[in-house]
Amino acid sequence: MPPLRGTGADREAEGPEFAGGYRLQACLGAGGMGVVHLAASASGLRLAVKVVHARYAEDPEFRARFRQEVAAARRVSGAFTAPVVDADPDAVRPWMATLYVPGPTLADQVKRNGPLAPAELRRLTAGLAEALRDIHRAGVVHRDLKPSNVLLTDTGPKVIDFGISRPVDSDLRTETGKLIGSPPFMAPEQFQRPREVGPAADVFALGSVLVHAATGHGPFDSDSPYIVAYQVVHDEPDLTGVPVELAPLVARCLAKDPAERPTPGQIMAALQPPSYAAEAFIPAQRRRPALPEGDAGVGPSAAWDADTPERAPAPPARRRGPRLGRPRLRPRLTIAVAAALALTGAGLYAALSPTAPAGRETRTRPAEVATAFAGWQTTLQEHGPTAAPACGHGGGALYCSARGVGLARVDPVTGRVLWSRTAPVKAESPTAPVALTDGLVGAAAPTGPLRAYAATGGTPGWSAEADLPELYVPAGSAVVLSDGQGGIRAVDSRTGKELWRHALAGFGVPRPGPYDAATGLVTVSETSPHGNRTRVGAVHARTGEVAWQHDLEGDLDPLGRTGDGMLLLSSLHQAGLIDALVLLEPADGTVRRLSLPHRIDVRGVAVRGTAVHILDANGHLTAFDTAAPKGRVLWELETGAGNVSEPALGPGDRLYFSVQDGRLLAVDTVRGALIGQTRPRLLNGRLEYAPRVPAPLVVGDRVFGTAPDGSVFAVDARDPASW
């Protein structure tokens, strides 16, 4: 590669083998704008580092576009892209480091092995539609979707190279007279009205990519880019060779009028039944591939080590199911606090056998030290659909609920199932158990009541019903519920006897939220129909007396208390993403709004002191300091995990979360570094990913996780590196 020339004292100037602080190990590919190198981070993560050519580094317009590429890549999630780890658009030679994603490009796959089979094509269609939905939700238009910008991985297709993408709200516009893109995969409006290009252009490109994948050539084919441009604008696409069951959908994607093209969501709906019934498109046979040939849009290719075992193909990452909560769709977040080691209220999608077998230790890790916890794994379901049990802890016991089982008690030391209670097998997903008082534990079905069970033996006790299970809030010796009639009530957690019931002045349909044990208060909130105002208050759990109430601007959702006693709320952007944190002083209504560095599709929030750890749905973790006047980012970590659980804090500056393939990840919250992860639990690739991921539980020196194979497992929290 040509030497990297720099000036100054930074490591880029020390030699040609560095970009920033990253040593460039091998060339993965080269194109007209730059070179992609293999590199490694300080923690050992393999990275793909794109370094721009020197001749473009002095071009202010190019630097602006590269800066926009970095910003666009950061805005989209890591489930369907190569997540950005680091970048320096202002370096002497601008560069960007993304997570290295093993897998050939679609262009290489078709070139080497021919067109995809119908089942593979169906899976590719669903995966790319899901990816575009994710990209467009982040407010980004890719504008250069083509086969060389699609990586085929064993977790589904990944879209790369946002070099000419443009955020919808960007001020950077395409100059008159300049065509930017790849003509065979450009939409008519990119030739005719380049300043008006929107998300529908990516759908047109998707149609062209699918034709290429099905036939080996595009729907508009010529050696001359000028003829291709004419064909795209005026001629009908050639769909010869496209499977008959997909041809009508592809034809709709290639409509000349952007308004006539389906949205990514409509494409996914048209593929019902779900595409995960199709065979995976990643070949099971693995071999070390040759380095990719130079291409303007080439991405990192597969580079398996010689001793890497063959892996069964896995289905593409899937987004989580609908959220419970308010009638209109919005995130429902909970806050994880370091001192809270009791039951969590995380959602659950699981299917346990109605007659759960006695637990057994199926996996025991040798102790690293004499006092280490050996760990265990207990399978609660032998057969059936993909399941990930959700569990809670209380009174020294572990409890799990699932579809088909109302409640099961598991010995946290051995993993043995002590007793279980059956429940009707329904399509809905039950909620996780909640801790009650006096040796009681509660469990609820989505459309049924909260029922108390005796911790010893599981004898049923009292029951109480709310309009939604998410609205059961354990609050010390009481349980606060939404009554579904515009008011809230509370019952005694020992007897189930109603303590109080009333509508709250100023509220229409109040929603009970986080409980603060220090004050005995339950937060209640309600957002106006237009989402421009939120009324927030607090009531005493035992008496229902209103402690305080404030009207705030914006669509806000209470998360819980920070270390300095402030109420933390998230601010929902109109696109369904969170763009700010709001701190409220309940005593006087003082509000501080802290803008986030970018909009986030938040899965959960964990607070340690005044540091807020925000985990998005695709594994990107941001540590944010709320003590600073305007807030500040402490660190960001891209784990590359798709569809994750809410986070859980543990002792020793640790944070844990689960992934849809059954892995449990551990993060050092001081350094912002991944320090350990368990193996996937998908029965050697025979299962699908869990569509909903329950949060792990941290109890003392143990972490309890669940997996899609229907198992519950425990590991030593003190030694994540050995997992």
From TrEMBL:
Domain Protein kinase: 22-282
CDD domains referenced in this protein's UniProt entry, alphabetically: STKc_PknB_like (cd14014)
Sequence ranges of Basic residues compositional bias: 317-327
Enzyme class: transferase
Entry EC no(s): 2.7.11.1
Binding residues annotated for ATP, in chain numbering: K50
Keyword Cell cycle annotated: no
SUPFAM superfamilies: Protein kinase-like (PK-like), Quinoprotein alcohol dehydrogenase-like
Sequence intervals crossing the membrane: none
GO molecular function (one): protein serine/threonine kinase activity
Residues covered by region (Disordered): 290-327
Annotated keywords: ATP-binding, Kinase, Nucleotide-binding, Transferase
A matching Pfam family: Pkinase
SMART domains given in the database record: PQQ, S_TKc
InterPro entries registered for this protein in UniProt: Kinase-like_dom_sf, PQQ_b-propeller_rpt, PQQ_rpt_dom, Prot_kinase_dom, Protein_kinase_ATP_BS, Quinoprotein_ADH-like_sf, Ser/Thr_kinase_AS, WD40/YVTN_repeat-like_dom_sf
Annotated PROSITE patterns: PROTEIN_KINASE_ATP, PROTEIN_KINASE_DOM, PROTEIN_KINASE_ST
Protein name as it appears in the record: Serine/threonine-protein kinase
Lineage: Bacteria, Bacillati, Actinomycetota, Actinomycetes, Kitasatosporales
